[in-house]
Batch of 2 targets.
Target 1
Amino acid sequence: MKTSAKKLAQKRAAKNLRDQVYRAAIKARLTEELGAACANCRAKDRLQFDLIHPVVPRPGTMSSTSRLALYSQLHKLGNVRLLCEPCFKHKLKTGQLPSTPPPAGL
């Protein structure tokens, strides 16, 4: 590998690492600000962000950095909450949150 190609690869690797650290910090801050628990059942593991009133059709198609930036902005407007994976899946299937915590296998 040529020296310039090696330097370019090192710069890309450093940028990727910085991006990962940035995304982890934003995610941790948002999670903490949202109470670090499912808004529905108060579970503390397998949490994911949920838009209360969707403003984009499929946030999952966005880059993770763009998605976190969107969640940060929408959090300021009170439009983001944390849901555990079972509650989130139930919401996706039925369109509403479960009234009781869903079974762990859902």
Target 2
Amino acid sequence: MGLNSKKPVLLTLILGVGIIAGAATKEQALTGVVGDALCGREHSMPGTPVACIRECIGKGGRYSLLVADKVYVLETTDQALLDTLEKQSGLRVKITGTDNGKTFLLKTVKPEPPE
């Protein structure tokens, strides 16, 4: 079995990996509640959940989005997006961006009406 007979298999593998990698970085839209990655779903500090979120963020935590049973850790350096997340702490928002498997790279944040 020579190199020429392996070319179709190699090409198929390369194309398959490229398709999977492209799908993993496709832009997504999610709707959920703004939280913080330190506490996740259960806020441990006394007071309101919003006060806990802001305290955790103030201590260097990251914002998160709670969607059903999943917690997405949000990543952005855009100050306008961070300001919107701060104002919407504990509230429903719709976000767009890409999930890299570890964090959700944020592109937009828009307030949503309560359920």
